[in-house]
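Hey, weird one. I pasted the Ribosome-recycling factor sequence into the form twice and got a warning about non-standard characters only the second time. First submission, copied straight from the form history:
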Amino acid sequence: MSVADAKKTAEQKMQKSIETLKADLAKVRTGRAHVGILDHVTVDYYGNPTPINQVASLTLVDARTIGVQPFEKKMGAAIEKAIREADLGLNPSSQGDLIRVPTPPLNEERRREMVKLVKTEAEDAKIAIRNIRRDANETLKKLLKDKECSEDDERRAQDDVQKLTDRFVAEVDKLVVEKEKEVMTV
């Protein structure tokens, strides 16, 4: 592995951390309905836990209601149960083939809890980014020890890795501010 490879690997891993954070933040409820909040719900499908989007089609009925249309009629009860047990604060109701999932408006206290959850997710992402920096720096020190790079190259590469870390941590902070504003908007 070369110095350039170490930096490139670190950048790719940090980018994946940002993408994971974006996916996690998409699951945090705001006041509006969006099908993304059901992404991590799994349904018992013939004994196998299956993502809800593989057993039903998800649509927005209106600004506050998600429509869940099971692909098989007999899966309706299992889907309802899975949504109730997902601890999202949602209470689905069946209307024929369609399961309606109204998203209740968030009160002030619940919004503050959501902001705390967002900040926790952000801190986890920052920790992951710092761990990637540490791993990259250890790789660079090993390259120096094995005499595969000079001290100057190693020092420059560590500075570059630190700049990468700062850039990705700033991106995490920016994502958190946006999501916090979105959650607190009534």
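That's the output from the first submission. The warning seems to come from a hidden character in my clipboard, not from the data itself. The mean pLDDT is 88.
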